Amino acid sequence: MQDKELHPDALEIINDIRLAEKSGERIPMYEMNHIDARESYLAMRNALSPSAPDVLEIKDLEIPVENDNIKARFYRGINNNKHDILPVTIFFHGGGWVIGDLDTHDVVCRQLANQGNFDVIAIDYRMGPEFRFPIAINDAINSISWVKKNPLKLPIDSSKIALCGDSAGGNIATVCCINSKINSGPLISFQALVYPSTHMGVNYPSKDKYDGYILSKKLMSWFEEKYIDENQLMDWRAAPILYKNLSGLPKSLIVVAGCDPLKDEGIAYGQALIRAGNSSEIVNFNGQIHGFLTMGARIKDTEKLLTLLSEKISEAFQ
Q1: Confidence (pTM)
Q2: Which residues are known to be catalytic?
Q3: Are strands 252-257 and 280-285 parallel, antiparallel or unpaired?
Q4: What is the Cα–Cα distance from 187 to 252, expressed in whole angstroms?
Q5: What is the overall mean pLDDT for the chain?
Q6: Multiple choice CATH, 3-317, 3.10.20.90, 1.10.150.20, 3.30.700.30, 3.40.50.1820
Q7: Which residues contact residue 190 at a Cβ distance below 8 angstroms, ignoring those fewer than 6 apart?
Q8: Judging by DSSP bridges, how do beta strands 57-65 and 119-124 pair with one another?
């Protein structure tokens, strides 16, 4: 570990977790079953997130997917009018394709809707171990098509769709962009990827250097075991950096945290997008840790990240 590299806000959180685990007050997530891990993750998000800001409108939705319906949530920001027709950002939460839901990232989606000139629709895709790879991806693809068709007549401009996600959600977002390229639609205007997983199962140097800062090799293995079979790790939908032709993808913002095990693969993916001829901006938040998007009550850089996301997405819609 490299404590000296950590931002003071991040170090304080890491030290709190260490103390809680040493005292037995908290056990590592990889020692839990997936049900308890989901409850723990929600509790941690609630503890580290600011109070939920008011928005103009929230509407819980259901989206039909293969053999089921999944939940989704529509957000309209406080600064917009109820009858405006706005672009939409579809948000995919992080959590290793095993944990996380609409509530773990509710504050983030409210903040984005309030700061950006767009609506947000968060997707509660199905996860492992109950629903293993590639069901989460398929749910996301179906959700984008549903938003594009807009059967509920939401006040959105479905010709202007951005995708955003953090960690596993960043993986899902960019895989969906590649899928839209392959299938010639739906058209995606922009992709905002926050410390995305882009090369599952491969050990980049940052996975050694920052092992244990929120994300650890043990936890990543725990996620992978519950989400995907080992013989599927080379599938580009698990590791989008492996897709044979990354040209012709939407403009992107890739955010990495300076002390995150996923930092190197996020940067590598951004560089691969640029080499393929895409417009991609890579932004590194020095000293920050995996998950800081949902740590706004304790980490001041979270507000800078939310501003960056809302501005870049809004610009892409102009």
Answers
A1: 0.98
A2: 167, 260, 290
A3: parallel
A4: 14
A5: 97
A6: 3.40.50.1820
A7: 162, 163, 250, 251, 252, 253, 312, 313, 316, 317
A8: unpaired
